[in-house]
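Forum > Structural Biology > Help requests

Title: Can anyone predict the 3D structure of GntR family transcriptional regulator?

Hi all, first post here. I have the sequence for GntR family transcriptional regulator but no way to get a structure on my laptop. I'd be grateful if someone could post the structure tokens.
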Amino acid sequence: MDIIISNASDKPIYEQITAQMKNLILNGTLAEGAQLPSMRALANDLRISVITTKRAYADLEAQGFIETVQGKGSFVAGGNMELLREERLKHIEDLMARAVEEARSAGVAPGELHDMLDLLMED
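Reply #1:
Sure, ran it for you. Structure tokens for GntR family transcriptional regulator below:
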């Protein structure tokens, strides 16, 4: 599992871990039921505090992305692909809202914006 921590990021380390793990789950890299590294192992790999990985795992569990089984570890949650898809759609809507806001401030017509989106979707 490739998690990259950036000291230059304005996001706390636990949020960077959470966001990257969510993306790995949503894009299918981490499949339903896949076991995650232990908090201690991930902390060692990333050279960070176990407390930080614990916070990331707790956030992922609270959001329904992972399940933790006492004595066995943490696993990618199953049966909630629709919830995960909704999360992804919300993120896309947020990005599109920002793009629309930028387009309006730049005087881009709705038709032009549609054309841009169509071109981007073709790539």
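Strands lie at 66-69, 73-76. The two ends are 27 Å apart (CA to CA).
Shout if anything looks off.
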